[in-house]
Amino acid sequence: MTEPSTAEIRTSAKAVVLHDDLVLLMRAVWEDQECYFLPGGGQHPGESLSDAVAREVDEETGLTVTVERLLWLREYIGANHDHPESEADTHRIEAIFLCTPTSDPGQLGGHAQDEVQTGLEWVPLGKVPALNLLPQAIRQPIASLTEAPKPPGTYLGDVA
């Protein structure tokens, strides 16, 4: 008899890096589609989420950033979404932080890019809803940052 597998919760930190009404996005090819992601990644044991996001932004983009504040907290429980069988053990918690660059925003190029990453792009906030930015649930909240620069922190829930 096979033992049921136990899901582990993976915590990560993502960055909404803003500069002159532009947001920094990673271009990627994932599951045979061209898309965008926020820079960021997994938290190391003993590392704060704010330290994790600053490290990940540096690794993936080459930028140093100031972490301003938590914008949103997102969960992804794979069993509740498009591929419940193959992602039954997937459970991610992402803290999404507002960040501002402290190094030259025109000098991009990380030293430890994600394997799906194909580039980096500064995108006008107003164009974000029309992009294939994943997860889809963050498109409108990011675009809304032009209207309300200080929205309250929000728990987004289990969204894809």
Automatic annotation (TrEMBL):
It comes from the Bacteria. Its cofactor is Mg(2+). The keyword Metal-binding does not apply. Signal peptide: none annotated. One of its GO terms (molecular function) is hydrolase activity. Keywords: Hydrolase. InterPro entries: Nudix_hydrolase, NUDIX_hydrolase-like_dom_sf, NUDIX_hydrolase_CS, NUDIX_hydrolase_dom. Residues 8-148 form the Nudix hydrolase domain. Belongs to the Nudix hydrolase family. This is DNA mismatch repair protein MutT. It comes from Streptomyces tubercidicus. The lineage of its organism: Bacteria, Bacillati, Actinomycetota, Actinomycetes, Kitasatosporales.
